[in-house]
Sequence to fold (363 residues):
Amino acid sequence: MNWQDRDYADDPMGNLGRPGGDWGGLRPRFDNPMSWSIMLGRVSGITVRIHIAFLIYIVVEFARGMTADKGAGPAMDVPVVGIFLGALFLVVLLHEFGHCIACRYAHGQANEILMWPLGGLAYCAPPHHWRAHFVTVAGGPLVNVLILSLTIPLLGVLTGAWWGVALPNPFAPASGLNEVAGSWPLLILYALNFVTLVLLLFNLLPIFPLDGGRLLQSLLWKSMGYSRSMQVSVYAGYIGAILLGMVGLIWGHILLVLIAAMGGITCYMTLKQVKFTDDFMGYESDASYELFSGNEQDDDEPRVSRRERREERKRARDASEAEQDAAAMEEILEKISEHGMESLDARERRILERVTERKRQSE
Fold:
């Protein structure tokens, strides 16, 4: 799952700017649930953490396996639960590493992964360009596709059961267990195949910020621009979340309802971020977003100092302000010609003063 592939333009407060991602260097604090995690290790400069909620989820699943009716089938056995949980952890971890590797391939930054019950969160900051974002997002599902390209034909050949085992019912993990019961290697292969397929289908739902929503946004970005593509993708995410929630309610899958609710909330928060950046900060164009994002330049371009980047951002703000003032001046001049200078309010007077001062400096 890819709830996290944000560049700095999505974070106007600059919280993503510190090394280590959203959670790097944070001590566990009661008021910050994202900090409730334990470090597992570090691979190629990427820190892997596991959230406390994931550990609780594992304990709960094992408890359900121990207390369940043993006559209900092999899916209720503790060893089988352990195999599925192990497959879930492995596939999610590989999926998130796929995002990180793809982000670095696109000349971005990726240095942290957080494992939690609904999947993983990878800190990725690709360059502010639609192609870099598309590559970063596609890296995760591509890992799932590669795994399935091995597990599906292998399961089909070994069991002779394609539908229901090699291609399992994503809503019924126990449906194919009878075909692999009695063979631990086949059971492990079945669990790996099932989990990989379910996570792939889930992540490709067009609900922002799942991978499907992110891929849609990056493709729309090319023709619509960053801000507009974000808004369209978020609105599409609202529709997807509503439909997913309805399916969950009709079929009695509470997890789908929870995922739909989380997707809807994330869409709402993302839309507020985009509108805040556009309306209040004045960064509407891709060029302005790129300056504001603070992303590093490509390796083949000369490095610039912080002071130069600040000056570039200031020039972008000044240019945006000048463009807005110029648009407002037409109404102000018309108002003066009809009602005189006394009719201007405080805001219009400030705009008039700024435009006059710019003309003086340019002469």
Notes: DSSP finds eleven helices and four strands in the chain. Residues 107 and 298 are 7 Å apart (CA to CA). Confidence is low (pLDDT under 50) at residues 1-26, 291-303.
